[in-house]
């Protein structure tokens, strides 16, 4: 259990992500993880997503399927605020902050309908996440294909690939949501982070995770 002084009103689980930044000064994994919110990380994420979203929207309008964009936006709102929030975000240290609004480097501003769950993601949750990403990312392609907007089909495809390349190289390699199927943080860094966060460490060990000494 966390020491009493580590628990605060705004940080009920004592997660180091939400402690004062002065705690990071002597942290040996400082700079190896994106464990604190920085506006530039959020802006890069949004910019990478728009590389896919903007040409997809333009292409669907030109193809005569403009009204279906509302379906894409509607699914995105449901996915980010309800579905993904449950299966992915609720396991993330950023989600441990008190309040109903998520403040993280990707889904900033999303609603938090669920309780923070420090255990790793289950196989079912990982499978659901992949399905959700496929639906979200591939939504415009049938409309672009049948609407014969092949130029925008190509541009949107490049945008989608660029977005996921950015995630894999720049985000997943430093993300603190370690059980995500796309996460690629080294085990020794994961272990160091867990040792600093006792609630999360206990939950992971109860699920069978073994820390290297």
Question: How are the SSEs ordered, and which strands pair?
Answer:
Elements (H helix, E strand, L loop, with lengths): L38 H24 L6 H19 L35 H16 L2 H6 L3 H22 L15 H10 L1 H9 L7
Task: Characterize this entry briefly.
With 213 residues, this protein is an all-alpha fold. Helix content is 50%, strand content 0%.
Task: Please describe what this structure looks like.
- This protein has 213 residues and is mainly alpha-helical.
- The protein has one domain (32-206).
- It contains 7 helices and no strands.
- It has helices spanning 39-62, 69-87, 123-138, 141-146, 150-171, 187-196, 198-206.
- The longest helix is centred in the first third of the chain and has 24 residues, at 39-62.
- 31% of the residues are buried.
- How much helix, percentage-wise, in residues? 40-55%
Shape: elongated
Strand content: under 5%
Q: Round the mean pLDDT to the nearest integer and report it.
A: 94
Biggest beta sheet attributes:
none
Show unreliable segments: 1-5
What distance separates the N and C termini?
20 Å
Q: What keyword list fits this structure?
A:
213 residues, elongated, mainly alpha, disordered N terminus
């Amino acid at each position: 259990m966390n020491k009493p002084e580590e628990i605060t009103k705004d940080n009920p689980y004592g997660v180091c992500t939400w402690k004062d930044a002065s705690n990071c000064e002597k942290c040996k994994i400082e700079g190896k993880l994106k464990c604190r919110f920085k506006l530039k990380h959020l802006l890069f994420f949004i910019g990478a997503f728009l590389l896919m979203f903007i040409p997809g929207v333009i292409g669907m309008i030109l193809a005569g399927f403009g009204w279906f964009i509302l379906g894409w936006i509607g699914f995105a709102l449901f996915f980010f605020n309800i579905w993904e929030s449950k299966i992915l975000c609720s396991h993330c240290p950023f989600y441990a902050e008190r309040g109903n609004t998520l403040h993280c480097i990707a889904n900033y501003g999303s609603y938090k309908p669920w309780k923070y769950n420090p255990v790793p993601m289950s196989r079912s949750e990982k499978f659901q996440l992949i399905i959700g990403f496929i639906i979200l990312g591939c939504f415009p392609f049938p409309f672009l294909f049948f609407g014969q907007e092949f130029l925008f089909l190509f541009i949107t495809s490049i945008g989608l690939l660029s977005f996921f390349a950015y995630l894999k190289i720049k985000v997943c390699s430093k993300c603190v949501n370690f059980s995500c199927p796309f996460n690629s943080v080294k085990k020794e860094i994961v272990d160091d982070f867990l040792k600093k966060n006792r609630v999360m460490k206990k939950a992971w060990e109860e699920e069978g995770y073994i820390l290297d000494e």
